[in-house]
């Protein structure tokens, strides 16, 4: 079973995405912010197949999480990270790969086709 | 010209004089000073060009000072003016009637500058009046500049607000869209286990909760418009503050439980007053929402009591706290103490709340230290007709 880490601060989005991903056969680890996400990575025995990451979050936001993984969690740096954001195209951080961005409101077909191409 | 970088008092605008030959410069300066007009006598074209980098009221320039070089330099400086700026120039023509030269200068500047010809000899009153007209027009230009700066600031705040508002609106819409897409997917797949009464009830609850979130956001946005137009009004009724607090707490019971936050409420006797029940409820909801949002899941305590003829409600959390410099800012529009996308929301709650409370002749304040929680204090006048 493929393992995913979902980092999202909004309770309702987290709850719903978890339900959807579980129904699709994924094992989902949940985190409420970047810090929580790092703690979760630290506790996992092996890296997840994919991380779904929200950008705007309390405590540690998505950008800081990305930076932290790149600099201090090199063991996980090969894990693909799909960034979920309600920001419009012009507002994305410059160094973001558009292929790794999932626009909110999320289109499920888009989500699954991105997950599929990243995991294949 | 670099006029925007200065914080200029328009009464301080100087008339710059360039009349380097003979006594004209000195005379003109004396005349203007006697008429109460501040002026500067610049002795060379280079000094004038340098001086024009800063705010100037108007320029009095003797025709004989305008050489080919001067024409080029002045044209360059004048073409650097910002859109709102059109420095008035008074050209003091030569007395020797070399009209061809004068005509060339006026024609040349006609395209880039606001130039008026003053033929010598002229009377003192003509020079003074013309200079006053020029300075007055210039003052208006600076007023336009200030208005433009203010408008741009307002526009950039509004842009930021729109960006936050659209982000905030997209969050509940994301949940709604995910829920409906998931149901469609399961139905298409023939997975009817998703249509059990329990799951359908849960689905409806989620959709309903998200619609309420959207509607609260829209209400806040409408309240802001009402406040800006001075159309936020209150409809007073006699009621007990405790009853509103108790009702709001009951409505929040589920949220406190799901977030495992304990909440205490101590009331000390009836607190009756003429207040707008709907609006006061809105303030109490805002204070409790903030205590949940910023309270780091630690206990929240509410107290009501009577103090100096006022009904008081305090809402105390044990969360992030607020730094001294942020204590007043959090009551401003679109502000929250924690920035950088750390906490969601429009940042309008406390601003709207304070406006509501002030309309009741009450006060909304906060006592807080970083990492030591916050205590918000709502004070409303007891049983007294309000304006």
Task: Give your account of this protein's structure.
Chain A is an alpha/beta fold and 120 residues long. Chain A is built from 4 helices and 5 strands. Chain A has helices at 11-23, 34-43, 62-72, 108-119, and strands at residues 3-7, 27-31, 50-54, 81-85, 101-103. With 387 residues, chain B is an alpha/beta fold. In chain B, the strands form 3 sheets. A 5-stranded parallel beta sheet of chain B has the order 2-1-3-4-5, with helices on both faces. In chain B, strands 7-9-10-12-11 form a 5-stranded mixed beta sheet. In chain B, helix 5 packs antiparallel against helix 6. The longest helix of chain B is centred in the middle third of the chain and has 65 residues, at 124-188. The relative contact order of chain B is 0.08. Mean pLDDT of chain B is 87; it is low at 2-7 and 337-343. The A-B interface holds A 9-10, 12-13, 15-17, 19-20, 23, 55-59, 61, 86-88, 91, 104-108 and B 163, 166-167, 170-179, 181-182, 185-186, 206, 209-210, 338, 340-344.
Query: Which spans of chain A have pLDDT < 50 for at least 5 consecutive residues?
Result: none
Helix content of chain A: 25-40%
Spatial gap, N to C terminus of chain A: 14 Å
Class of secondary structure makeup of chain B: alpha/beta
- Strands side by side in the biggest sheet of chain B: 2-1-3-4-5
Q: What is the total tally of β strands of chain B? A: 12
Helix content of chain B: 40-55%
Task: Tell me what portion of residues of chain A adopts beta-strand conformation.
Answer: 15-25%
**What is the succession of H and E elements of chain B?**
EHEHEHEHEHHEHEEHEEHEE
What is the percentage of strand-forming residues of chain B?
15-25%
The whole-number mean of residue pLDDT values of chain B reads: 87
Shape of chain B: elongated
Described by strand count, sense and barrel closure, the largest sheet of chain B is: 5 strands, parallel
Number of helices of chain A: 4
Physical arrangement of strands within the biggest beta sheet of chain A:
2-1-3-4-5
Described by strand count, sense and barrel closure, the largest sheet of chain A is: 5 strands, parallel
Gross geometry of chain A: globular
SS-derived structural category of chain A: alpha/beta
Radius of gyration of chain A: 13 Å
């Amino acid at each position: 079973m493929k393992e995913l880490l979902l980092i999202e601060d909004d309770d309702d989005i987290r709850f719903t995405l978890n339900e959807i991903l579980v129904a699709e056969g994924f094992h989902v680890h949940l985190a409420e912010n970047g810090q929580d996400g790092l703690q979760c990575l630290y506790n996992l025995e092996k890296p997840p197949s994919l991380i779904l990451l929200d950008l705007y979050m309390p405590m540690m936001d998505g950008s800081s999480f990305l930076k932290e993984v790149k600099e201090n969690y090199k063991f996980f740096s090969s894990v693909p990270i799909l960034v979920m954001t309600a920001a419009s195209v012009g507002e994305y951080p410059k160094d973001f790969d558009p292929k790794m961005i999932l626009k909110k409101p999320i289109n499920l077909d888009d989500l699954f086709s991105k997950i599929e191409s990243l995991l294949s | 010209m670099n006029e925007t970088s200065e914080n200029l008092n328009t009464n301080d605008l100087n008339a710059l004089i360039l009349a380097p030959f003979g006594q004209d410069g000195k005379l003109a300066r004396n005349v203007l000073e006697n008429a109460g007009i501040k002026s500067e006598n610049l002795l060379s074209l280079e000094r004038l060009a340098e001086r024009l980098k800063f705010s100037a009221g108007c320029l009095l320039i003797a025709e004989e000072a305008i050489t080919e070089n001067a024409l080029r330099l002045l044209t360059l400086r004048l073409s650097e003016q910002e859109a709102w700026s059109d420095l008035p120039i008074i050209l003091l023509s030569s007395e020797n009637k070399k009209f061809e030269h004068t005509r060339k200068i006026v024609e040349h500047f006609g395209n880039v500058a606001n130039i008026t010809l003053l033929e010598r000899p002229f009377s003192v009153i003509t020079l003074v009046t013309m200079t006053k007209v020029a300075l007055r027009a210039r003052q208006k230009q600076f007023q336009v500049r200030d208005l433009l700066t203010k408008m741009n600031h307002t526009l950039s705040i509004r842009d930021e607000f729109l960006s936050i508002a659209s982000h905030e609106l997209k969050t509940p819409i994301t949940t709604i869209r995910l829920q409906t897409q998931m149901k469609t997917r399961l139905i298409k797949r023939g997975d009817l286990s998703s249509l059990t009464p329990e799951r359908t009830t849960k689905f409806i609850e989620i959709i309903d909760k998200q619609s309420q979130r959207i509607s609260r956001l829209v209400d806040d946005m409408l309240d802001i418009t009402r406040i800006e137009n001075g159309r936020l009004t209150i409809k007073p009724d006699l009621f007990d503050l405790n009853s509103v607090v108790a009702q709001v707490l009951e409505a929040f019971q589920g949220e406190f439980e799901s977030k495992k936050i304990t909440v205490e409420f101590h009331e000390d006797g009836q607190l009756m007053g003429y207040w707008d029940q709907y609006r006061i409820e809105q303030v109490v909801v805002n204070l409790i929402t903030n205590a949940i949002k910023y309270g780091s899941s630690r206990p929240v305590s509410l107290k009501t009591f009577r103090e100096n003829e006022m009904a008081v409600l305090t809402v105390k959390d044990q969360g992030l706290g607020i730094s001294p410099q942020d204590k007043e800012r959090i009551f401003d529009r679109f502000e929250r103490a924690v920035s950088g996308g750390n906490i969601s929301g429009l940042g309008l709650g406390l601003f709207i709340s304070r406006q509501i409370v002030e309309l009741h002749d009450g006060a909304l304040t906060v006592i807080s230290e970083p990492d030591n929680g916050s205590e918000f204090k709502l004070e409303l006048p007891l049983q007294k007709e309000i304006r």
